[in-house]
């Protein structure tokens, strides 16, 4: 289940599938004005399963909002407690070990073991969100709406509320649907920014409502059942309608031979990453993304299936889809090298996608805090290029 926690965070609801175990978490009653401290091993499930005296939420690493039982608190990771290879406990933040703090935001398991996150929070109320399921015959309307939504929200730096769309073109063996998730961080039903989507007919199902984010987390969690085999892969492209049409057609062609795979579900998911979003991390994170990259769309390819005997076929098809999509985007000058690490497949190199300058910075931090390179040689995950 690699990547599930942050995979879903980009779908607005981080951590709902990371674990189903019961977790204990001490949350201060005055959650509006203090730093809430979350243990690394338990925070995911606790965020959405613990009933809090206040309504709390905060953005994930992709600037999307998370919320637990109630409505919320927006905020950000303000510090991390890190244990180095020498057993030294460090508090990394903007003022202390700031280089390590920056490196941890995208650098993966290359510097130490994070044992605590400090999260700054502030209150937020309920939101309007939910899912609409459409027949696959509406695909072209959906792609047009996605392109226009990304362009429109990509020019608004101070919106009255945060509006997000997750476009999901889903294949269940031989059946296809479109299952989009929408969210708006005010309790205002059907805001005009979504009109191009919500006006599309017919609609097979519609769960849009005003509620809290844990409620929506439970809804999305039904789409990630336990007991199956999974692969994730990713790529990033400029927002372009003709490219969307070309890539969805290529996906249909690539995955048609998998229709006989037992219990296969193929999700071709497109998620806007707009210039206002990129402005938050430009020149501060190591991801190498800035508004100058333009309005982008991240492809999250997720495939689940039942039997190990189909592994080779599924892996090969996933790699074919990603490589072919990248080639098509490059041919039209619409490719962005960024690979979102928590969606990346084993055949991808997300850290290299941050750019040479950021990779050199990560290497420097690694040598400084882990001179024996324990986390390069003895710990799994995506390693820094040598």
Task: Give the helix/strand layout.
Elements: H1 4-9, E1 35-39, H2 43-49, E2 56-59, E3 65-68, E4 72-83, E5 89-93, H3 98-104, E6 113-124, E7 127-135, H4 139-153, E8 163-172, E9 175-184, H5 195-198, E10 205-206, E11 209-211, H6 213-221, E12 229-238, H7 241-255, E13 265-273, H8 275-281, E14 296-305, H9 311-331, E15 335-336, H10 356-369, H11 374-377
Antiparallel strand pairs: 1-6, 2-3, 4-5, 4-6, 7-9, 7-10, 7-11, 8-9, 8-13, 12-14, 12-15, 13-14
**Strand percent estimate:** 25-35%
Mean pLDDT: 82
> Whole-Å distance between the termini?
27 Å
| Structural class by sheet pairing and helices | alpha+beta
* SSE string: HEHEEEEHEEHEEHEEHEHEHEHEHH
Q: Could you give the count of β-strands?
A: 15
What kind of sheet is the major sheet?
9 strands, antiparallel
Architecture overview:
With 386 residues, the chain is α+β, with helices and mostly antiparallel strands. It is 28% helix and 28% strand. It contains 11 helices and 15 strands. The strands form 3 sheets. Strands 7, 8, 9, 10, 11, 12, 13, 14 and 15 form a 9-stranded antiparallel β-sheet that branches. Strand 4 and strand 5 form a beta hairpin. Helix 7 packs antiparallel against helix 9. The radius of gyration is 20 Å and the shape is globular. 42% of the residues are buried. The N terminus is likely disordered.
């Amino acid at each position: 289940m690699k990547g599930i926690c942050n995979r879903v965070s980009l779908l607005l609801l981080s951590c709902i599938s990371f674990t189903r175990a019961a977790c204990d978490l001490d949350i201060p009653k005055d959650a509006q004005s203090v730093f809430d401290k979350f243990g690394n091993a338990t925070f995911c499930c606790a965020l959405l399963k613990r009933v809090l005296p206040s309504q709390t939420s905060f953005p994930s690493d992709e600037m999307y909002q998370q919320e637990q039982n109630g409505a919320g608190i927006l905020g950000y990771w303000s510090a991390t407690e890190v244990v180095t290879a020498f057993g030294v406990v460090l508090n990394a933040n903007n003022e202390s070990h700031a280089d390590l703090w920056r490196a941890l935001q995208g650098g993966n398991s290359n510097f130490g073991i994070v044992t605590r996150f400090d999260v700054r929070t502030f209150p937020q109320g309920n939101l309007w969100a939910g899912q609409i399921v459409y027949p696959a015959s509406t695909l072209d309307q959906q792609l047009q709406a996605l392109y226009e939504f990304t362009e429109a929200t990509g020019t608004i730096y101070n919106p009255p509320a945060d509006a997000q769309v997750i476009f999901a073109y889903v294949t269940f063996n031989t059946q296809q649907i479109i299952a989009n998730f929408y969210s708006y961080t005010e309790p205002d039903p059907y805001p005009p920014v979504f009109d191009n989507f919500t006006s599309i007919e017919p609609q097979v199902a519609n769960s849009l409502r005003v509620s809290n984010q844990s409620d929506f987390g439970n809804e999305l969690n039904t789409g990630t059942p336990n007991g199956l085999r999974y692969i994730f892969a990713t790529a990033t492209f400029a927002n372009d309608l003709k490219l969307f049409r070309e890539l969805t057609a290529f996906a249909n062609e690539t995955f048609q031979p998998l229709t006989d795979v037992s219990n296969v579900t193929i999700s071709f998911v497109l998620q806007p990453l707009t210039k206002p979003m990129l402005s938050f991390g430009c020149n501060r994170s190591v991801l190498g993304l800035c508004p100058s990259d333009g309005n982008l769309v991240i492809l999250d390819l997720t495939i689940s299936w039942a039997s190990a005997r189909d592994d080779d076929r599924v892996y090969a098809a996933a790699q074919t889809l990603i490589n072919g999509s990248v080639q098509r985007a490059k041919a039209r000058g619409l490719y962005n090298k960024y690979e979102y690490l928590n969606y990346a497949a084993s055949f991808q190199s997300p850290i290299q996608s941050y750019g040479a300058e950021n990779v050199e910075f990560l290497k420097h931090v690694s040598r400084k805090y882990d001179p024996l390179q324990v986390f390069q040689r003895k710990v799994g995950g995506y390693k820094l290029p040598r």
